[in-house]
Amino acid sequence: MADDRWRMGFHITPRSGMIAPPLSITQDKGQYHLFYQWIAAQSSADDHHQLHLSSPNLIYWHFEDENIEGKTQPPAPTSLTQSAAHLIHPDKQAAALSFAKGPALAEMREADHGFDFSEPFGSTDEKGRFIALALMNDLNAPYSTAPSGLDWTNCLTVPRELTRNDKGKLLQYPVTELEALRMHTNRIDPLTGSLFPAHRADIIFSNIESTSDVEIDLDEGCKVIFTNGILSLQFTDMRIGAGRNTCEATIGMLHDLRLLIDCSSIEIFANKGEAVLSSRWFPRSESFLARCHVNCEKSAAWTMDDVLYLTYE
Question: What is the pLDDT of residues 64-89, one digit of tens each?
Answer without folding.
Answer: 976 544 444 554 433 333 333 333 34
